[in-house]
Amino acid sequence: MRRRGIVMLAIAAVTASVAMSGCSSGGGETPAGTTTVTFWQQKFEDYQQAWFKKYVDQFNASQSKVKVDYQVVPGDTWAQKLKAAQAAGKAPDIATTNYGNVSPGVAQGQFASLDELLPAEKFDDIKGNVKPFVTIGGKHYAYPMLVEPSTVLYYRTDLVTAAGLDPASPPKSWDELIVWATKLTQGAVKGMTIASAAPDLGWSSWGLQYNACGRLPVNDDWSKAAAMDPCYEKLLGLYKTLYANGLIPKQPKVGYADGAPYGQGEVAMMAGGSWVIGQLKNDFKAMIPKTAVAPFPSFDGSTGKTTATLGGWTLTVDAKSKAKQQAAEFIKYLLAGDPAIMADFFKTSGFSKYTVRSSVDLALASNPDASADPFMKIISEKVVPFGKAEPAYPWDISLAFGTAIESAMKGSADIPTSLKTADAAINDVIKKQSLAGTAPK
Amino acid sequence: MTVLESGIATAAKPAADGLAERRVAGHRRDNRTAYLMIAPMVILLTIFVIWPLVYSVYLSTFKISFYEEPEFVGLQFYQYVLESPRFWSSIWVGLYYALLTVPTGIVIGLLLASFIKMLSKRAAAFMKTTIYLPAVVSTVVASVLFVFMYQDEGVINWLLSLLNYAPVNWLNDPSFALPAIAVPGIWLGFGITTLILLAGLLDIPEGYYESAQLDGAGFFQRLFHITIPLLRNVLLYLLVTGFTLAIQLFDLPLIMTGGGPVDATMTPNLFIFTSFRDLTPYATSFSLTASLMLFLVLGAISLVIFRLVNSDKAIDG
Lengths: 441, 317
Hints:
The complex is a heterodimer of chains A (441) and B (317). Chain A has 441 residues and is α/β, with parallel strands linked by helices. Helices cover 46% and strands 14% of the residues of chain A. Chain B folds into two domains: 3-59; 83-311, MetI-like (MetI-like fold), CATH 1.10.3720.10. The model of chain B has no long low-confidence stretch (mean pLDDT 87). Chains A and B meet through helix 3, helix 4 and helix 19 of A and helix 12 and helix 13 of B.
């Protein structure tokens, strides 16, 4: 009986150690000479997962030296899962990283420089306005995949016409936007939808912060908050009016990034990222003929000003990876290789995202769908050229400003008090995280 | 002392010594058995509680980085947490939630337990099962259900619309959000509270009530002079466990509101969790230190309530 117990204990110990070794996600070489690299992709729209899987499988089948272990991680568990893996020394060799996290990651020594891992000509192909997003101190720490404007105005042409408005002449100023939203609020259909919770407002309002004040609420070298600049009062006033007048849903069922309320006909207009085009084309096809897009209105009605930041995703290699070169081989294949691969991605996305490589532009130039897409034409000509990069400062600063907008919207405090609170919170972040003078140049 | 007595005494001394030795030996054996029996728990506690706690305190004196050498900062992060308005606001949110749910749950539980006590055996068994049912519902499921119920088109606003009060912005208005979350919180917890109180009620001898009735005591007199004093231990237990659990609420606001609007439902654990999710070394150290501070706050609250327990010995029914 005792011997049986010991045997059971030994089996349990072996099973546990095998299971624990299976948890390892670092690069490792198998006896056959194949190096396995782990790749974590943050979960996006379903078609993106299908696209990634297709090309991971093709890469794995095309050679036998590197095997990519592809894992999809939901966005709401991404941060804690990645941190836990980093703490255990098991961070993925390759990970999706947004532009805003490249600079802070480099400051922490999180990413490997790609200059030593990829041929120099691969960086020459990256468009000039995107290169600074991934370049820190003259080195490239991420390979860009796409850019997507964070804020575009979508509107229902049929409802606009029914309300006596001209769909060919969308609102240009915030005052006009409020007039449109008021006229389009009919019964259960609200005039529009826009972010209304601090975590969404923190990032989706970056473009409008630029529009209102020509800057973000912190000075250029990150040494002092600038949230009390009176120009931000107009921005908070816009959000407050939309919320207080019942022009947007007061209890939104989904976050800013999800265009479902527009797709389901619950609102007549929507402030949304360019990615919503892909969602409409895939999930709400009937809405496409009734939809038009326009640059989001500016505070004074002038055109050619920033109303959106250019967000987007890159692939990075972990600084502690034991298989950096092999990880870079996969990035070279997927993002920097045959332009047809990325062209396929943009086609799959319904041209709702924008290229970062000149060679991919050329590959798409011959695609009649791309040149004929009305949404792509407006966004690429009227929004993307004026888009700014996402800020690289810590998220706490964006959240403090997002909280100020939410606070003013929902009446927790008046607009000046909300901005004052945000200003103090941002200065606190600057002090405690020693940010002064650390802004990337 | 006579010779006989002296002889008895001489004979009795070794016998008494032997008895004492046997007693001491027995006592030692008892001690050894007791130590052996508590050893597994002490070892497990040391591995899973005491050591992690000590190591956490050690780590909290560093700015933790997973890629660079951690920087020793002493007690700096304790100062940061103590100065953080969001940390203190989250403690108040936790206390407010506890105040909303714990006394309400106890009152509802007491009323239901009193009602069940009056029922026949079969009806009581049915009621106990029905009341306990919410306790086995997953918090996630309950959260999603209540989110649907609170929507503009949800059943609650539909009922209010019959009175011309709808729609109320339950989950997106800073003044309504926490009470709106407290409702599923009470619903999930009152089953267990009721059963515990029912057990306490059934322990009170029926004769007390009969005597009181003969003396002309009404319902409220019986409640305040018999039931509540004799349930004191049970009520204090429910208060202690209820408060510490309520302040640590995490899943309901995570799913229903994400801590918003404007941090109105940002409970301490949710605040620590959201702080941890930021990918900076500052966030890692800050959330770790905030967890330790929360441990102290919870300890202090428990201490206050335990003092209350000790200050007034329960009356044994």
